[in-house]
């Protein structure tokens, strides 16, 4: 005779049906796949789009500012930057006033790629808003921001 499991299967079903973390992760992966597919002709991922967009500022941001905006640690950001830098889409440089700081900026090539990507991003977002309903998208954004 086998012993009963420590955690009953009903608990697994309960977690599957109610876990906010699981549902957000699944939705995030589904959205990521959708944006990745849309951006594929430009040979960038949705994460790379977000990273490049985070550099589209009047003044070049510090690595820390970008890491904070993207909710990444600096090591992960550094790894994410390397392929984009190799492609000539962005550059890192030492801050003129504080040599300890590294700043990031889009290159002209990066700006042109981002300009091509924005209409694709807008079209993909519009399709998602149409599927969810714009009010639902706005509400979802607000609720997700409340968690951060």
Summed up, what is this model?
By secondary structure, the protein is mainly alpha-helical. The protein has helices at 9-18, 20-39, 46-54, 63-69, 74-86, 108-132, 134-147, and strands spanning 90-94, 102-106.
Question: How would you describe what is shown here?
Answer:
Strand 1 and strand 2 form a beta hairpin. Helices cover 66% and strands 7% of the residues. The N and C termini lie far apart (48 Å). A two-stranded antiparallel sheet has the order 1-2. The chain is mostly helical and 148 residues long. The chain has helices spanning 9-18, 20-39, 46-54, 63-69, 74-86, 108-132, 134-147, and strands at 90-94, 102-106. The chain contains seven helices and two strands. This is Transcriptional regulator, MarR family.
Which band does the percent of strand residues land in? 5-15%
Task: Supply the CATH class.
Answer: Mainly Alpha
Note poorly predicted spans.
none
Give me the count of strands: 2
CATH architecture verdict: Orthogonal Bundle
CATH topology: Arc Repressor Mutant, subunit A
Estimate the helix proportion, in percent. Answer: 55-70%
- In DSSP terms, counting alpha (H) and pi (I) runs of 4 or more, how many helices? 7
Task: Indicate the mean pLDDT.
Answer: 95
Order of strands in the sheet with most strands: 1-2
Multimerization status: single chain
Shape: extended
Q: What's the domain count?
A: 1
Main pleated-sheet profile? 2 strands, antiparallel
| SS-based class | mainly alpha
Distance between the termini: 48 Å
**CATH homologous superfamily, by name?**
Winged helix-like DNA-binding domain superfamily/Winged helix DNA-binding domain
Helix and strand pattern: HHHHHEEHH
Radius of gyration using CA atoms only: 20 Å
Protein name: Transcriptional regulator, MarR family
GO molecular function: DNA-binding transcription factor activity
Organism: Sinorhizobium fredii (strain NBRC 101917 / NGR234)
């Amino acid at each position: 005779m086998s012993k009963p499991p420590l955690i009953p299967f009903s608990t697994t079903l309960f977690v599957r049906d109610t876990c906010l973390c699981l549902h957000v992760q699944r939705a995030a992966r589904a959205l990521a796949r959708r944006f990745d597919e849309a951006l594929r002709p430009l040979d960038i991922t949705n994460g790379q789009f977000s990273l490049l967009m985070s550099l589209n500022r009047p003044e070049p941001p510090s690595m820390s500012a970008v890491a904070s905006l993207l909710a990444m640690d600096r090591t992960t950001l550094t790894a994410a930057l390397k392929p984009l830098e190799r492609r000539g889409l962005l550059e890192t440089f030492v801050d003129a006033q504080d040599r300890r700081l590294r700043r990031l900026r889009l290159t002209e090539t990066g700006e042109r790629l981002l300009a091509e990507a924005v209409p694709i991003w807008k079209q993909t977002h519009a399709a998602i808003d149409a599927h969810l309903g714009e009010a639902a998208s706005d509400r979802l954004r607000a609720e997700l921001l409340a968690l951060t």
